[in-house]
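Priority: medium. Attachment 1 of 2:
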């Protein structure tokens, strides 16, 4: 099963676009392509939304 990736700006799930062996992530909410170096995993999103006290 493929891991879900999230936008670092709005924290919405990203759409994976694969073409010619390259993978890019697109955020439908922000209407932009997100660098694979900046995408967040589900675990990282949970940490951002609910920081430890």
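Attachment 2 of 2:
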């Amino acid at each position: 099963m493929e891991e879900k990736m999230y936008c670092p700006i709005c924290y919405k799930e990203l759409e994976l676009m694969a073409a010619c062996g390259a993978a890019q992530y697109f955020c439908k909410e922000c209407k932009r392509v997100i660098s694979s170096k900046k995408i967040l995993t589900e675990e990282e999103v949970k940490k951002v939304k609910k920081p430890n006290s």
